[in-house]
Amino acid sequence: MNSFAEIIATIKKYDRIIILRHQNPDPDALGSQAGLATTLRQAFPDKKVLIGGNDTEGLKWLSTAEEVTDADYQGALVIVTDTANQPRIDDQRFDDGDFLIKIDHHPNDDAYGDQLFVNTDASSCSEIIADLIDSSDELQLTKEVAYYLYAGIVGDTGRFLYPSTTQHTMEVGGKFIALGVDTAAINNKMNEITLQQAKLQGVLFDNLQIDASGAAYAVIDLDLMKKLGINQEQANSVVSTPGRLKEVCTWMEAVQKDDGTFRMHLRSQGPVINGLAKNHDGGGHPLASGATAKDRAEVEQMFEELKELVTEYNQKGE
């Protein structure tokens, strides 16, 4: 793994830098991407820094992408944030540049890039970007940069509720507050849902299947989304909802895509679930992962595997 100093030295060499993140971006993907882009623009105003990828409608208030042409990639430095593996990068031209850097906090199962910095102990990629800035004499943590990074950290820590939140995470957040970032406004914006999403939460509680072990799952199919007038992006936003139930410790949400397959969201308050995700074309953090199920039968199969995993965890008394 490379050091921050090595990464910054590489950044200094290039006049054009393209920053990418993963598909269907969450606040950490957008926050780390935009935070890094902003600090580089402020430190090196003569460099051309571009933000690539596709926008997420519900998160346009945080950051939007820019047009990146094929010509822009020629001779450029490409930096990918918050993306564990190459298929998930939200622009498959990522390898068309001159040099590729990976900055991430997921398990490093796909060690792509000419340089990489991966810290799985970090709460978020946004926290890593804050540390990168802190390590440098050229880069500065300004209020504008901190705005993006705070949103990213809040998103990946569940407003500092998840076990990934450390003393260092809180110290970094304190720096943002000291700079005058309106943390309350960001928290309120991220807590905001539409009426349709609120209705979906109610339906989800009604349809949630809870096993005696504490494993649970729910399916949000195309028919339900059409009935409620929501899209897949809005459906994905309720992934944390089952974790509010006392009876649930580990859960899956299956959101059907237009091609009939299911995007599987796995979350846990104890049992490690990224191994299960890897067995179904996915991966991620020990307590927060994603996977793909080709049909309803595979969804059911995954729930059986989840029940076994949770039961074994309970028997060990962990």
From TrEMBL:
Domain DHHA1 residues, every copy: 222-311
InterPro entries in the record: DDH_dom (IPR001667), DHH_sf (IPR038763), DHHA1_dom (IPR003156), Oligoribo/pAp-PDE_c-di-AMP_PDE (IPR051319)
Alphabetized Gene3D superfamilies for the sequence: 3.10.310.30, inorganic pyrophosphatase (n-terminal core)
Domain DDH: 16-153
MF annotations from Gene Ontology: nucleic acid binding
SUPFAM superfamilies: DHH phosphoesterases
Protein name listed in UniProt: Bifunctional oligoribonuclease/PAP phosphatase NrnA
